[in-house]
Design brief:
Distance between the termini of chain A: 44 Å
Oligomer: homodimer
Helix content of chain A: 55-70%
Shape of chain A: elongated
Strand content of chain A: 5-15%
Radius of gyration of chain A: 20 Å
Low-confidence stretches of chain A: none
Number of strands of chain A: 2
DNA sequence: TATGACATGTAATCTGTTACATGATTAG
DNA sequence: CTAATCATGTAACAGATTACATGTCATA
């Protein structure tokens, strides 16, 4: 079947367009000016990514006529695209998701409420909480072994990761409480 | 001059080899078994990266003879490589370093003590503290604007980033105190 | 009329992923 | 003998970066 996995830039685009149809230029502005600076705003990344999404049938672009400005192509998420986005968001959180930074999980969560609904947001948080628990256990075990041999900077760097994960767990619980109200 | 920037995988290799000369296989084991899982342990990533480092004169590989096992190439950091590593570690922390995750900064810090010295570790922490202060101010301003318009999940996701940065700042100050002792 | 923001794209190049290939040595 | 582990590599492909190219429209 050879179904290569979709890079997170494409999911970020899908999520944004689900919120509001936009042109490539619009998206670039969003990426460069808001807290989504982690994603590339270069035309060489955005335009080909939009093409790929269109080729796969997840979005459809229509050229906007009339408004006087140069041709502007507005992209809208198709029903197939919505399904893909929902599927991505509602997957349980794996250990792998945590190893490679919370970045992607947070993006999924940020889109979850609008794209799927409150229950999905809560479900994602619960899944994150569980995964994080296991992940933290592993980290603590590794830390015990490491702290005897590593130099101070190595130990502290590891502790930073540990604290980060603990903080994330606290945030997760806080977020769950926020939804309970 | 066209001096393309070195990817962090290569710095990770440089730092590891600075600590202890090793073969490509050794490094793969380290990446796959320790907390450095974020870096790829695939041969298609490691071996070409070692080649590039060697081509640039940062490391030198020597084939280990005798030990009965199959040929094993051990890589050692050259003085040019050491200089490059120190240079990378001692650069001040920029806003950009923070936007793209603390990953790289932490790697620099983890290597700092052994590769440069305690003063360098402290200097890096101080630089991080200062950068983080400014970064946090920006985040808080953005948060005020966002929290009026975003849905709950969007607001919470942003708060997660905010808390993460605050936690990192606290860790930085704790680390500075650790060195003061 | 010249500048800058709007708007879209391509080409060269680099790095990483996936999957495959090779061969030596050791343990069962 | 055969399976696992050690050890190194290559080839095809995907995606991102950088830099360049193109052209429109508003405004100073």
């Amino acid at each position: 079947m050879k179904q290569h996995k979709i890079p997170s830039l494409e999911y970020a685009l899908l999520g944004l367009l689900q919120g509001k149809p936009a042109s490539g230029y619009d998206v670039r502005k969003i990426f460069s000016s808001t807290s989504m600076k982690t994603y590339s705003d270069s035309p060489g990344a955005i335009y080909p990514a939009l093409r790929r999404l269109e080729r796969r049938g997840f979005i459809r672009g229509t050229i906007e006529e009339g408004a006087g400005l140069r041709r502007r192509q507005i992209f809208r998420v198709t029903s197939k695209g919505t399904a893909e986005l929902r599927n991505w968001i509602t997957h349980p959180v794996t250990a792998d998701d945590l190893v490679h930074g919370q970045q992607d999980v947070m993006l999924r969560f940020a889109f979850s409420e609008y794209a799927v609904g409150r229950e999905a947001s809560v479900a994602l948080l619960k899944s994150l909480e569980e995964s994080l628990g296991r992940y933290l256990q592993g980290l603590r075990t590794e830390f015990e072994a490491l702290k005897k041999v590593a130099p101070l900077s190595g130990r502290l760097a590891f502790e930073c990761g540990l604290r980060g994960a603990e903080g994330l767990l606290e945030w997760t619980q806080y977020a769950i409480r926020s939804y309970a109200k």
